[in-house]
Design a protein that fits this description.
About 25% of the residues lie in helices and about 25% in strands. It has about 140 residues and is of the alpha+beta class. It binds tetrahydrodeoxyuridine. Tetrahydrodeoxyuridine binds next to helix 2.
Length: about 140
């Protein structure tokens, strides 16, 4: 537990899916494979990996892949709301989503959305989105 955020059986199921997704990363340039799995407010699970490109800036993050899968699978508003997300990579202390991905997550999340950072030994830190992206950009309100 960290930041008072509980690691539940659902978090551990996401960790498993994120680990499987990481194995599918296309990261021949950075050699840094990242996996993400997210659970929606409706209980659906989607995952993704980073996909790099020989034209380096054209690659994208694992979070972006997972969000893309979520949007394509969504049939209701709750299917588009991220309740919880796990990111895993082979780095200790573990990585957290990059700045751009925090904003992408925010598009489909709430301030209470839980983000777990894992290394190969498991989830090490947990945050709310509000903690990772304070004073976030938004046009409305
Ligand atoms: N990467 C992710 O997939 N997610 C993050 O949150 C941080 C970075 C990827 C992008 C690139 O393919 C590799 O990690 C090295 O930066």
């Amino acid at each position: 537990m960290s930041d008072g955020i509980e690691i539940t059986e659902y978090s551990l199921a996401l960790l498993k899916e994120a680990t499987k997704a990481r194995a599918k990363a296309h990261a021949p340039y950075s050699r840094f494979a990242v996996g993400v799995a997210l659970r929606t407010a409706s209980g659906k699970v989607y995952s993704g990996a980073n996909i790099e490109n020989t034209s380096y800036p054209e690659g994208w993050c694992a979070e972006t892949s997972a969000i893309s899968h979520m949007i394509m699978g969504a049939e209701s508003a709750q299917d588009r709301e991220i309740a919880e997300l796990v990111v895993i990579a082979d780095l200790t202390p573990p990585i957290t989503p990059c700045g751009g991905c925090r904003q992408r997550i925010k598009e489909f999340a709430t301030p209470q959305t839980r983000i777990h950072a894992a290394d190969l030994a498991g989830i090490q830190h947990s945050y709310t989105l509000a903690a990772l992206l304070p004073a976030a950009f938004h046009l409305e309100g």
